[in-house]
Amino acid sequence: MHRADELADRPPGWAALLSGRNAIRSLTLAGGVALHAANVFIAATTLPSVVADIGGLSYYAWNTTVFIVMSILGSTLSTKALAAAGPRAAYGIAALFFGVGSAICAAAPSMAIFLAGRALQGLGGGLLLAFAYAMSRLVFPDSLWPRAMALISGMWGVATLIGPAIGGAFAQLGAWRAAFWTLIPISVLFALLAAAVLPKGEAARGAQPPLPIAQLLSLVAAVFALSAGSVADDRISRMAGIAAGAGLLIGLAAIERRGTSRLFPADALKPGRRLFALYAIIMLLELAVTACEIFIPLFLQVLHGQTPLAAGYIGALIGVAWTVGSLVSSGATGRAASRYMLVCPALAAAGMAALALLVPAPNPLAVGSICAALLCIGFGVGIGWPHLLTAILKAARADEQDLASASMTTVQLLATATGAALAGLVTNLAGLAHPGGATGTSHAALWLFAGFAVTPALATLTALRRL
After folding, report:
1. Are 241 and 223 in contact (CB under 8 A)?
2. What is the mean pLDDT of each run of 10 residues along the chain (467 residues)?
3. What is the residue-wise DSSP string for 382-434?
C-alpha cells in the first residue's frame, strides 16, 4: 500500500504531456514560442544583409527596439484578447499578426516598411508568448504546469540552434527575404492547429477593466529611453537615456500601486511578498543571461581567436543548457522544486564570476573553460525557471491568474531590453569602442561580467530570504 501511495503521489511524467490530445496542444503552444524565438535569431543574423540591400544602417538598432516594444505591448494586451475572443480565436489572431508582419518584412522595399513588419511581428510574437503561459494553465492540469513551463522555456534553446542556421544559410545565399517568407506557412500551420485543439471559450460578458494606458505608455517610453541611451555616442547622452528609463520605470511602479487597472498582480510590487521575490529573481537572472548572449560572440572573436560561426554557437550554449536544465528538473515537486529555485541563481552567479576571470585574458586555450562557465549559467537558470514560473501562477490570487500569466512575459521582455541597454552602457564606458581593439575589449569584458555577476548574486540572496 505504501508503494502504491507513493506512485499515486508522483507527478505525471512527460508521456502525459506529449501523448494524445495533449501532444497537439503542447506542439501548438510551444511551437508558437519557438516561432517567435527563432525569428529573433533569424532577424539578427540576416539584418546585415537587409541593410546592405535596402539601406537604413542608421536605424539598425531600431529593429530590436521596435520589436521588443511591440512584444511587450502584445504580452500586456493578451489578457484582453483572451477575454474578448476566447483562446482559439485569440491565438489565431496572434498567428495572423505574426504572419502578416513576416510577409511585410519579406517584401519590404525600404527600412521604414521593414520596421513596420517588425512591429507586427513583435505584436504577434508577444501575444504568442503570453498565450503559451496563459493557455497552459487553461488546457493542462496543474500537475503538468512545471513540465509545460519547461517545454515552453526550452523552445528558446531550440531557437538558438535553428534560428542562426536558417538566417545564416539564406543570408549566405543572398536570399534574406526567403528567410522571412518561410515563417508565413509556419504561422498558418499553428493557427490551424489552434483552431483544432484549443478551447473555443466565450467572450467575456459585461464590463471589462480598462487598459492600464498610463503604465503601458511609461513602459514603452522607458524601453525607448534605455535603448536610445545604450546606442548614444557620448557618455552624457548614454547616462541621460539610462536615467530617463529608470525614472520612467519608477513612475510606472508608482502608478501601478495606485491604479485600479494593472499590468501586474497586486503583490508583485510589494517588497516582502512572495510574488515580489519571484518576479525579482526572474528579472535579475534574465539581465545576466542577456548580457552574456549579446557580447560573448564578440569577445570570443576578438580575444580568443574564434570564427564568427564558432563564436555564435559557443554563445548558444547558454540556451542549450537552459533547455536541458528545464527538462531535467521539470518533474520535481515540493522541497525538490524549492531546492532548484535556490540553487538556480547560485549556479548562474558562479558562472558569471568565472567568465569575469576567463574572458578578459586573450587565450584560445581558455575557450573550453569559458564553455563550461556558459553551460553552468544556462543549466543553473534552466533548473529553476519552470518552478519559478509555476510558483508565480500558484502565488497569484485566483482572480489574477490571467494577469500573472501575461505579466511573466512582460517582465522577461522588459529585463531583456534593460539588460541590453545596461550591457551596452557598461561596455562602452569600459572602453569597447574607445580605445577599442583587444585592450578595450578586454576591459569591457571584465567590467561586464564582474558587474553582471551581481544580479544573480542578488537573486540568490532574495531566494534564500523569501523562498
Report:
1. no
2. 46 81 88 88 82 80 79 84 85 94 95 93 92 84 85 81 80 88 92 86 57 83 79 76 87 82 82 90 93 84 81 82 89 88 95 96 87 96 92 85 80 83 82 83 93 96 87
3. HHHHHHHHHHHHHHS-GGGHHHHHHHHHHHHHHHHHHHHHHHHHHHHHTTTTT
Cα separation, 44 vs 224, in Å, equals 19
Fold equal for 21-205 and 265-467? yes
Residue with cell string 485566483? 398
Neighbours of 338 (CB within 10 A): 16
Helices (H), 140-182: 145-172, 176-181
Which residues, including other chains, have CB under 8 Å from residue 461's CB and lie 6 or more apart? none
Write down the domain spans for the chain: 21-205, 212-260, 265-467
Residue 272, pLDDT score: 82
Give me the torsion for CA of 40, 243, 233, 295, rounded to 10°.
Answer: -40
Q: What angle do CA 265, 271, 275 make, to 5 degrees?
A: 40
Per the CATH hierarchy, to which homologous superfamily does domain 21-205 belong? MFS general substrate transporter like domains (1.20.1250.20)
Helix (H, G, I), strand (E, B) or coil at 181: helix
Cα distance between residue 131 and residue 136, in whole Å: 8
CATH architecture for residues 265-467: Up-down Bundle (1.20)
Residue 361's CB: how many other CB atoms inside 10 A? 12
> What is the rounded CA–CA span in Å between residue 122 and residue 402?
20
What is the number of other CB atoms lying within 10 angstroms of the CB of residue 294?
18
Tell me how far the alpha carbon of residue 284 is from its chain's centroid: 12
Q: Which of 112, 68, 42, 119 is nearest to 228 (CA)?
A: 68
Reference 194, options 132, 149, 120; nearest CA is 132
C-alpha cell at 54: 535596402
Read off the amino acid at residue 55: G
Helix (H, G, I), strand (E, B) or coil at 206: coil
Residue 135's pLDDT is 85
End-to-end CA distance of the chain: 33
In the chain, DSSP finds a helix count (H) and a strand count (E) of 18, 0
- pLDDT score for 285: 96
Peptide bond into 345 cis (omega under 30): no
